[in-house]
Design a protein that fits this description.
With 300 residues, the protein is mainly α. Helix content is 70%, strand content 0%.
Length: 300
């Protein structure tokens, strides 16, 4: 290893920071005057500075905000080595940013790490999700604008259509998540049984008795009945959700069928209609019985 690498001196600034009697740098004094409403040209003349430097400070002041120095001083105190709650503060910031505590500590160890963080010059995982949502919002806004301009319509129509679509997608995602959770629980049970059998085999223990054919038939029948009941509960939950939108039970029944057809799921629509004919058949309109030609006799 080179000796210069071992005895490396700390790199110093090319030009020292010029401070006034209160210890304020030129940048800080410029910020104060910008907050008072002075323009960059006037500040450059008052402080005898280059206009290019003052305009650069003015751009930073507009981007960072008028209270950046106060915010920086406050947050800097939270992360001082002697601060009693320093670790808790670091954990809180790291959790909000979606990174590990050690990663945030590494940012603080950099010479300008805290300032870069507060100035928004660093990119974190949580910003990826926010940027993606902004992109989705922009694309959605463009699509709605094109639809309204080219095909006409009212805001209320677009709002109701989006609301219906979101609710339908939410129900679909919930059903998918319930099915995945049930499969995961079942597979976890299977793995556990296999692990117990393998452990007993290693120990030389007697394997437990398997289910008899009658027990298997009874278990299958019970599970089928339970599955049918869960399907029926899910169906009536969807009906109730649609009725909350202000439609009747018969209209909700038909809407579920029509939604599948509109999405191109013809086989699913046929299966749903067959299921509805069994579970939720349309009731014929009630007809009053015809009047009887025989007059009842009143008791004497």
């Amino acid at each position: 290893m080179r000796l210069s690498g071992i005895f490396r001196s700390k790199k110093s600034r090319r030009y020292p920071i010029k401070r006034d009697q209160q210890g304020r740098s030129l940048r800080a004094r410029c910020f104060e005057r910008f907050e008072q409403g002075q323009r960059p040209a006037a500040v450059a003349m008052e402080l005898n500075m280059k206009e290019t430097t003052v305009f650069r400070y003015f751009t930073d002041w507009k981007r960072l905000g008028p209270n950046f120095d106060k915010q920086y001083s406050f947050v800097k105190q939270l992360f001082k080595k002697t601060a009693p709650d320093r670790d808790k503060s670091i954990e809180s910031y790291a959790r909000v940013l979606g990174i590990e505590k050690e990663q945030f500590e590494a940012i603080l160890e950099k010479p300008q790490g805290l300032k870069q963080f507060l100035a928004g010059r660093l990119y974190f995982p949580i910003m990826v999700d926010a940027d993606h949502k902004r992109h989705m919002s922009l694309q959605l806004g463009i699509l709605i604008a094109e639809h309204l301009i080219n095909k006409g319509g009212e805001f209320q129509d677009v709002y109701l259509a989006l609301r219906t679509l979101l609710q339908k997608n939410k129900r679909f995602r919930q059903n998918e998540e319930d099915a995945i959770e049930a499969d995961n629980q079942f597979m976890a049970l299977i793995h556990r049984i296999l692990e117990l059998d393998l452990e007993n085999e290693r120990k030389g223990a007697v394997k437990r008795d398997r289910l008899t054919e009658d027990e298997i038939d009874q278990l299958l029948k019970s599970e089928q009945e339970s599955f049918i009941k869960r399907m029926e509960v899910s169906y009536w939950k969807n009906i109730a959700t649609l009725m909350m939108e202000g439609i009747s039970r018969e209209q909700a029944r038909e809407k579920m069928y029509r939604d599948l057809l509109d999405n191109g799921n013809v086989e699913g629509a046929k299966a749903l209609r067959a299921y509805q004919d069994i579970t939720d058949p349309l009731k014929p309109r009630r007809q009053e019985p015809p009047p009887s030609s025989v007059q009842p006799t009143l008791p004497k």
